[in-house]
């Protein structure tokens, strides 16, 4: 698994999202995801939205994913 594949999955699963994903070892990753759909949602709900884009990869090919989830307004601040 590579960071670019994860970025593509997140961005295709969350229309309008912009993701930056890093991970050197192929199983542990960090992602910053900016998406207008996060507005009004608590962090746990935002993380669930991102995790849903990755489906069965979570806990298998992706051992750990540290998330930072922001609305476009939060990202601009």
Give the SSE map:
Layout: H1 3-13, E1 18-22, E2 28-34, H2 43-54, E3 64-70, H3 72-76
Parallel strand pairs: 2-3
Antiparallel strand pairs: 1-2
Protein name: BolA/IbaG family iron-sulfur metabolism protein
Family: Belongs to the BolA/IbaG family.
Pfam families: BolA
Structural class: alpha+beta
User: If strands are numbered along the chain, what order do they take across the biggest sheet?
Assistant: 1-2-3
- Biggest sheet features: 3 strands, mixed
- Indicate the percent of residues in helices: 25-40%
Total tally of structural domains = 1
State the end-to-end distance.
32 Å
Q: Could you list the spans in which at least 5 consecutive residues all have pLDDT below 50?
A: none
Organism: Thermomonas fusca
Protein name: BolA/IbaG family iron-sulfur metabolism protein
Family: Belongs to the BolA/IbaG family.
Pfam family, one: BolA
Descriptive overview:
This protein is α+β, with helices and mostly antiparallel strands and 77 residues long. The chain is 36% helix and 25% strand. Strands 1-2-3 form a three-stranded mixed sheet. Strand 1 and strand 2 (28-34) form a beta hairpin. It is globular.
Features:
77 residues; alpha+beta; GMP Synthetase, Chain A, domain 3; three-stranded mixed β-sheet; 3 helices; 25% strand
Describe, in short, the structure shown:
This is BolA/IbaG family iron-sulfur metabolism protein. The chain is an alpha+beta fold.
């Amino acid at each position: 698994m590579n960071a670019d594949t994860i970025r593509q999955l997140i961005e295709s699963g969350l229309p309008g999202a912009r993701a930056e994903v890093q991970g050197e070892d192929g199983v542990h990753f960090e992602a910053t995801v900016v998406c207008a759909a996060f507005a009004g949602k608590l962090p746990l709900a935002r993380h669930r939205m991102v995790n849903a884009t990755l489906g069965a990869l979570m806990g298998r090919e992706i051992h750990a994913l540290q998330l930072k989830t922001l609305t476009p307004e939060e990202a601009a601040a």
